[in-house]
Amino acid sequence: MRFRIILFLLLVIAAPARGADLNGSCEVFFLGTSTLHDFSGTAPCQPFTLSIERGAQGGQMVQSGAVVTPVSGMDTDNRRRDKKLREMFQSEQFPHIEGTFVSFDIGEALRLLRASDDGSGHLQFGLSIRNRERLIRANVENFSENPEQIAFDMEFEVSLQDYRLKPPSVLGLIRVGDMVKVKVEVKLDKSREGATADLHELQ
Predict the structure, then answer these.
(1) Which CATH number fits domain 2-200: 3.90.380.10, 2.40.128.110, 3.40.50.1010, 2.60.40.720?
(2) pLDDT digits (tens, 9 = 90+) for 141-152
């Protein structure tokens, strides 16, 4: 059951549309530590499209794909710090952070998630930073839906060391900590004409 819930929550990372298309959006919030004080920031996700197709067994299938966050969009409200973060990520050579998943039956996954008492669960997905990919386990909270939209939050931690990233420092004295907390707020619009009919089968 947990595996199928995980697959549903990865619908935020969608493929090019060939069936019923849904528009998706998300925003990333992150919190880092340093030897001086903690800092927070935001980063946008590129808009994505979720394509639902009928599978061979009659289910409503979401195909594999990726969601992309531009490193250049990371904003900590401090231009000097933002510059150092872009240098750490080598943004000129690796301009994007990317999450990936595989195809799954959205109808069955939705039914399982609705059965959760508090709309929470866990998910796993591949997170690529620079030229390295790691499996991330995220806590999922605040799942909600209405006739127009599905929404939920994902929370997880990223180790800079796991991606061989050297934490930025100032004068060798102020250094950013290894673990960064990340929260992603996801919204999936299901009100578009052409998508609504297929989604009625998932209610």
Answers:
(1) 2.40.128.110
(2) 888 888 888 888
